Amino acid sequence: MYIDYEVADKIAAITLNRPEAANAQNGALLDELDAAWTKAAEDPDVAVIVLRAEGKHFSAGHDLNDRWPAPAEITLEWIYGAETRRYLEYSLRWRNVPKPSIAAVQGRCIAGGLLLCWPCDLIVAAEDASFSDPVVMMGIGGVEYHGHTWELGARKAKEILFTGRPVTAAEAEQVGMVNKVVPRDQLDAETRALAEHIATMPSFGLRQAKRAVNQTLDVQGFYAAIQSVFDIHQSGHGNALSVSGYPILMKLDEMKAKIQ
């Protein structure tokens, strides 16, 4: 089991519990996480969903050791199918759960980690939190759920993609990606207090407010952009497949070295 689930006082707390691997996402973790989101969405006693993580880091992103077959067996068709289900479709489904959701982020949130917090309606970040998408170094233009432009603005999005550098919690708050930055030891309490306040609001009003904002973004092109940029992401895999040894996998140790 990689996910803990608890409901108290109308708040469902979904916890990533793979701290020994910096909450890296293998297939089992993502499937359990999707099941927890579905359970919270369908529970009439849940008004607000909180996504949090045990350990030093929120998430080191995808666990490449788990999801990749041997390089000689990889095909673009396999990659496209696997990533559509677990990355694109899961993230979009979590975004559209008709209940408010809050992500509590500490430490590193790298690449695939963004696919977990960005679908949430609000983000509370610890002062030590940082957000990055360094996959350009792997020959790919960004992670599968490409919310960068919407979350950061065009120029900041290009900066973190072109350089691979992390965005600090303070920077993320400045551009509106993060709602609140708090001391690390207050992250859970501050997130819980926000969730408790939201839970006192009428459920139908919350549902309609979320739907209104999400549909406004969709009218502006969010949904279509996410779908189309996913195909651009797949072209990175296609390019890698044309190179002997599949160099994206060769970057695995280099990526892991960034998590301490």
TrEMBL record:
InterPro entries attached to this UniProt entry: ClpP/crotonase-like_dom_sf, Enoyl-CoA_hydra/iso
Coiled coil: none
CDD domains the UniProt entry points to: crotonase-like
Pfam family of the protein (one): ECH_1
Gene3D superfamilies in alphabetical order: 2-enoyl-CoA Hydratase, Chain A, domain 1 (3.90.226.10)
BP-aspect Gene Ontology terms: fatty acid beta-oxidation
GO MF annotation: an example: catalytic activity
NCBIfam families, A to Z: PRK08290.1
Record protein name field: Enoyl-CoA hydratase
Species per Swiss-Prot/TrEMBL record: Rhodococcus oxybenzonivorans
Lineage: Bacteria, Bacillati, Actinomycetota, Actinomycetes, Mycobacteriales
